[in-house]
Amino acid sequence: MRFHRVFRLASIPALYFCLLAQTVSAQGLLRDADIEYGLKQLAAPILTAAGLSPTRVKMLVVNDSSLNAFVIGTDAIFLNYGLINRMDNAAMLQGVIAHEAAHIANGHITRRMNNLSAARTAAGFGAAMAAVVAAAGAGDAAGGILLGTQSSALNRFLRHTRAEEASADQSAVRFMRSAGVDPKGMSQVLELFSGQELLSDTRQDPYTRSHPLSRDRVRALEGYVAAYSGGPTADPSAAYWFERVKGKINAYTRSPKWTLRRLKETPYQDVRLLREAVAEHRQSRTKAALRAIDAAIALRPNDPFLHDQRGQILLESRNFGPAVAAYGRAVKLAPNDPLILSGYGRALLIQDRYKEARQVLEKARIIDFRDGSMLRDLSVAYANLGQRGMASLVTAERYAVSGRLKDAEIHAKRATALLPEGSGPWQRAQDVVIAAERAAKRR
Q1: CB neighbour class for 128 (10 Å; exposed up to 12, middle 13-18, buried from 19)
Q2: Taking a C-beta distance cutoff of 8 angstroms, is the pair 109, 72 a contact?
Q3: Which range, of 47-61, 189-203, 293-307, 350-364, averages the lowest pLDDT?
Q4: Contact 12/435 with Cβ under 8 angstroms?
Q5: What are phi and psi of 262, to 5 degrees?
Q6: What's the Rg (C-alpha) of the chain?
Q7: One-character DSSP codes across 46-87
């Protein structure tokens, strides 16, 4: 698992909007190929029932222990890891996903973006548009997120109306029923937040503040669930991926001792072993971590994410040769996963296999060009191959993605002087320069 503190943008020229919101701070994402794949499995039937594309709408985990889930654009649903940790079953998590998907499918986010374009007040348009552009970009790449603000304008943007909540509840229950998921999961989620409306705003969970809860809403939802209840049974695949997602997040976000004491609570042996491997690795007990992950691989030999985890354990314990082999196996099993490719490229880079690393990392960049750590490694690969222009370009893009436009402009100008004029890479460098110049003018 990797922590990313980056911005997610529709395009490089759109970066300048970020600087309109001086009170907005960056919040990180927890990026892990295994977790994101598991969330995709849980979300896919819901998104399909909502008429949304499971390949386009990404499921991203926010590095925040509070309870919250939200959408700011139409191509990503953000879930705080704290919320995932509090879910008791797959249907509850799928209920949250269904509710957020309903906000997208029902046009709530699109209407807000249209309204923002007409309401160009310094606070309303500046702060909220920065969040929209940065956190909900229109590309198909997963990246970072622009969150956490003191701006009342952005808080108003994130807060849904009661009418929107009622609409989303009704649609979510319908999506769940169509997807074969028990809609009682939605009721269980609201039970989790019951009583929150009686607390002061400062004591409420962020989810309650952005998703107003009332007795009328609870009663209406109970009516929707009763009307659609009956029929769906628990999906074994959903139950498995829920346990795996939650189990791995727990293993990374709670203390290793806490994880090891609770291994038996996990009903799936391979998930128990995966959690054990993570906990042992976090305590620098490499042999024990490898024993656990190897036992998990023996149960699921063609699971790319277990090989990816093995590669991470080996790489971070400085066993570079075996790490390359483990990542290589993971890539063979999942050749188009950008996070697995990124890990493989890093392992190759550490072994000074620069040409191979560049090829792997370039493939990862094409799939997900807003992964800051991958861009850092790619720039190092180019530099060691003597391709200074490309190294400067990728460095400029890395700074741009992280919101450091002054630094991005310096490296982009250096790249334009080194790259063939009119070439594709030269044009990419020009895009960064233009974005930086526009941002400077708006200050």
Answers
A1: buried
A2: yes
A3: 189-203
A4: yes
A5: -115, 20
A6: 22
A7: HHHHTT--TTTSEEEEES--S--EE-SSSSEEEEEHHHHHH-
Give the three-class secondary structure for 229.
coil
**CA pair distance 370, 60, nearest whole angstrom:** 14
Instruction: Please state, in angstroms and rounded to a whole number, the distance separating the CA atoms of residues 334 and 129.
Output: 36
Token pair listed for 248: 């791995």
- Can you give the pLDDT at residue 179? 94
Q: Name the DSSP letter for residue 151.
A: -
Rounded to whole angstroms, the Cα distance separating 130 from 291 reads 46
**Which DSSP state fits 5?**
-
What whole-number distance in Å separates Cα of residue 33 and Cα of residue 41?
Answer: 12
Supply the DSSP symbol for 124: H
Spatial separation of the C-alpha atoms in residues 235 and 181, rounded to whole Å: 8
CB contact at 8 A, 410 and 434: no
Distance CA(188)–CA(297), nearest Å, equals: 34
As a residue count, the chain comes to 443
Q: Are 14 and 442 in contact (CB under 8 A)?
A: no
Does 120 have pLDDT greater than 50? no
Instruction: Give the list of residues 6+ apart from residue 59 with CB closer than 8 angstroms, or none.
Output: 36, 39, 40, 42, 43, 76, 77, 79, 97
Which tokens go with 293? Answer: 């992950």
Per-residue pLDDT at 73? 76
Whole-prediction pTM? 0.82
Please give the share of the chain, as a percent, with pLDDT higher than 90: 55
- For residues 383, 388, 394, 400, the Cα torsion angle rounded to the nearest 10 degrees is 120
